[in-house]
Structures are given as C-alpha cells and as structure tokens.
Amino acid sequence: MSPLYDSHCHLDAAGFDDDRAGVLRRARDAGVARQLIPAVDRASWDAIRSLCAAEPGLRPAYGLHPMFLDRHAPAHLEELEQWLETERPAAVGECGLDFFVEGLDPERQRRYFRRQLELARRFDLPVVLHARRAVEEVIATLREVGGLRGVVHSWSGSEEQARQLFEMGFCLGIGGPVTYERAKRLRRTVADMPLDHLLLETDAPDQPDAQWRGRRNEPARLRHVLDVVAQLRGQPVAAIAEATTTNALRLFG
Predict the structure, then answer these.
(1) Record keywords: NADP included (predicted)?
(2) Which site among 108, 144, 248, 250 is 20 to 30 Å from 165 CA-CA?
(3) SS3 4
(4) What CATH number did the domain enclosing 198 receive?
C-alpha cells in the first residue's frame, strides 16, 4: 500500500512534548510517512521550522489561525511575508474564518485572512483553510482574491459548497469526524466526491476518530480514517491511499 500523508497534524502542540518521538514512530509503523504541520500563531513558527528540519517527511505551513486573534499583531503579517520568501514552506496556514467561537472580531478575522490569501497568491503557495460556520464567506473571499489553490481542512460544509470548491480546484481535508455514523451529510459528500480532491488528515491532537473517542489523537490514527473512507466509497483501501497521497504531494510538493 502507498505510504500515507497526514495533510493536517499539529505535531508541535504541547500535548506531544512528552512522547513526540513515540508518536512519530507509531505513525511510521502505521504507514504514515508524511505530515503537514500547520502553524496557528507567530510564536509557533520557529518550533515548527525546527521540527520539520529534524524529522524526514514533515513539511511546515506558516500562518495565523482565526481562533487565536488575541495572539496576532499586524506586524506578524509583515513577518509572514518575510518567512514565506526565505523559508518557502509547503503552504500558508492555518488561516481562515471562524464564526462559531464567540468573541472573535469578524472584521479583524477578515483582515488577517485576506492578507494571508494575498501572500499565498503572491508566492504561489497553497492555503490550508479553517472554515467553521463560515464556508460561504470563505468561498466568496477565495473567488474575490483569485489565483489560489489549497484545502479546506476538517470539512463540514454542504455538498453544494463542496462542488463550488472542486470547481475552483480546492481539496477537502477529511479526518476523524467522518468515522462517526451520525455524520451523515459528511459521509455522503465523501462517498460521492471526486477522488482527486480528497485529502486525509487527523488534526491531531484534536478530533479523534470514533474508535479513539475521548483520547489524544495522533497521526497513526490516519489508518482508521483511511479504512472508513474506503468503505464509504466502496473502493480498495490501497486505491484510496495511493490517490490521497498523490493529491497531497501534488498540492504541497
């Protein structure tokens, strides 16, 4: 079977500090050979750079996450521009919009989001997008900025919204939530979507799958996500593994 690519894993998170080497070993044993490590704030960039330089198969993405507005400053956007020019990461992100969490200023979110999209377009880099109760506006902003590619991770939108993203060339990141039987709309989308727009992810240490409920998630659990996706689509596990890894390599290099 083709090695797997976890397209969204926060391996730099403090929750992995005590056993990060073990987490990486278990991931490799499960066939997860590559991981994209997206940043959430300026303070995380240095640690992600060091982690990815030290471990083969890890690729960095640098950005400013909408849920951490209180950690961001306009100067960080200027620093991001410099980092993208000198570091040439795999992607810009995690960035986007979050209208679910109360107290996050929508206008400030929009300013940080649009500027990061503009930087991604300038440096010809894909974007890793967070869109919670904000998919429609995220799609509209992508169209306004134009010239972009990337993935909406932890997909939770409608089938029509997914179709619009496919037409724009975007991928959907599918992880633990698809393993829950109650996620009927998500499961329909995954069953019917074009295979060349599908990425697998864990979002570890968050969003554990149904078999791992209540526990710290980790990239080795990507194998269970793969099994469920293959079952929903009625396709061989090996075919899904090969296609999703090819998709991630095409997007992130």
Answers:
(1) no
(2) 108
(3) strand
(4) 3.20.20.140
Query: Six-digit token pair at 72?
Result: 């961001």
- pLDDT tens, position by position, 139-187: 999 999 999 999 999 999 999 999 999 999 999 999 999 999 999 999 9
**CA dist., res. 96 & res. 79, Å (int):** 18
Q: Is 203 annotated as a binding residue?
A: yes
Question: Residue 192 corresponds to which tokens in the numbers above?
Answer: 């019917």
76 has binding-site annotation: no
Report the alpha-carbon distance of residue 171 to residue 96 in Å, rounded. 15
Is 10 annotated for ligand binding? yes
Q: Is 153 annotated as a binding residue?
A: yes
Q: How many domains does the chain have?
A: 1
Q: What is the pTM of this model?
A: 0.98
**Is the CB of residue 43 less than 8 Å from the CB of residue 71?**
yes
Please name the amino acid found at residue 86.
Answer: T
